[in-house]
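Subject: Sanity check before I submit

Could someone independently write out the structure tokens for this chain? I want to compare against mine line by line before I put it in a report. The sequence has 291 residues.
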Amino acid sequence: MTEQDRYIPGVPCWIDTTQPDPEAAVAFYGELFGWEFEDVMPPGSPGKYFIARLRGGDVAAVGSQWEGGPPHAVWNSYVWVADADETAAKVRAAGGSVIMEPADVMEAGRSGVFADPAGAVFSAWQPGRHRGAAVVNEHGSLNFNILNTRDVDGARAFYGAVFGWELLDVGGAGPMWALPAYGDFLEQRTPGLRARTAEMGAPARFEEVVAGLTVVGDDTAYWGVTFGVDDADAIASRAAELGGEVVVAPFDAPWVRMTVIADPQGAVFTASRFTPENKDLEQTGSATAGT
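---
Independent answer below. Compare away.
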């Protein structure tokens, strides 16, 4: 842990997308979000891993598909952990599965790929030189990770055992995952954060929230990602121009205006504009199509 770190164990810290054609994905997201890319794999490597940056700060990555991974394009979520091997043991003990055993990623860190009992896949990140996303909650950067699942009780037990998460009922915005220590960490990092959050009318303990949960009506369970944007309608239009698909047209939801988009190779994500005037809206069924 360094003084500059914005994460503690149990907090989602990084996202990447694995793609059949990573160069094509680089072109799409570069145009959509203004990302600049660097392939950080050594010369001659069979795969690509392009780190995306805004103003020099890491925001996400685009990589080649890996053996044993999903055959289609997908966005992946990583949770910061102190010990990836210990996390693997906790996943097994809680009824989850280990898809890829923890392994070193050069000097960047150590990572493993897991699935919860309902099948939602996520990764753990034990940081080395790579300290997670440096730019978040801005246009074109990670805003939220959301678990989509039918088995809420099973998810509560599993993620509580693995990461110490608690499931909060925050009213119209739907249930959210909280990590009590995170609120203390953020308050220390940014004194006065709790007071400012309360003044905005945010739900109690909102500063402890690390992720969201959407209840879906089928047996599909997955982790999705949400990017912050300045204009959800403009992003939806631009994504379509670039060959993507608008899966869910822009709509208003509690605190946000959002849209669901599939990139040209099929990886689905949500783009969300923070809209405080929507804070008292009730969640609608259309939101469950999001990620």
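---
OP: Matches mine. For the report I'm noting this point. Residues 11 and 182 are 8 Å apart (CA to CA).
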